[in-house]
């Protein structure tokens, strides 16, 4: 990925670098047949940041995410990797909050909930606060797969963590709690081949290419899965492995 990212040409820019904001994304993969599929939604054309692009559900970390209680915590190896090279104050609750943000944003944007429902309720039109009262959040099945910081000069800059979870861990996979917030236009399931033909941000395309061969061989990633950390430094795009 270069400093002049073609997928960000439609986004407004700033001459001064904006401070990256913590964000999290959830990549849901299902294996209903021999071809694994991934959930993607198209961003509205009115968005200032990457309009019309197909992306995974996700968004910014909220302060409340760091205070949310869970039924099952992150696998220790996943938690450890989230703490590596964390900007600012290194905080276990912040690492956990990033995982919760990915789950919350996915629910708000798609109606799909990663977790064990206590009641038979479909959570129809339920706000997140109400969801938490009817749900035990289970972070143990999340796998940390990638991290990327948006290059400087963009309308929005995010320090994004990309989590992967198998669709079997979605408590309401066939009956979403609501139709979504509208931020993503009707999220759909695509094979990896189909997904790579869509109008994607470069980082999304990069992650799909890395994930495809793994998901074609197995359904779940190991908790010690190497994590690609991509960011801009000086005049070049760098990559570390966490």
The helix content is: 10-25%
Q: Quote the average pLDDT.
A: 87
Structural class: alpha+beta
Oligomer: single chain
CATH architectural group = Alpha-Beta Complex
The domain tally reads 1
By CATH, the topology is Nucleoside Triphosphate Pyrophosphohydrolase
CATH uppermost class: Alpha Beta
Q: What is the count of helical runs?
A: 5
Q: Going by CATH, what is the homologous superfamily?
A: Nucleoside Triphosphate Pyrophosphohydrolase
Largest sheet: 9 strands, mixed
Separation, N- and C-terminal Cα atoms: 19 Å
Which regions have little confidence, pLDDT < 50, spanning 5+ residues?
none
Evaluate the radius of gyration: 17 Å
* Beta-strand content: 25-35%
What is the number of E strands?
A: 11
* Envelope shape: globular
What does this structure look like?
By secondary structure, the protein is α+β, with helices and mostly antiparallel strands. It has a single domain, classed as Nucleoside Triphosphate Pyrophosphohydrolase. 22% of the residues lie in helices and 26% in strands. The protein has helices at 76-83, 92-110, 128-133, 192-195, 202-217, and strands at 21-30, 37-43, 54-55, 58-60, 116-117, 135-136, 143-149, 158-166, 184-191, 228-233, 236-241. The strands form 2 sheets. Strands 1, 2, 3, 4, 7, 8, 9, 10 and 11 form a 9-stranded mixed sheet that branches. A two-stranded antiparallel ribbon has the order 5-6. β10 (228-233) and β11 form a beta hairpin. It is globular, with a radius of gyration of 17 Å. The mean pLDDT is 87.
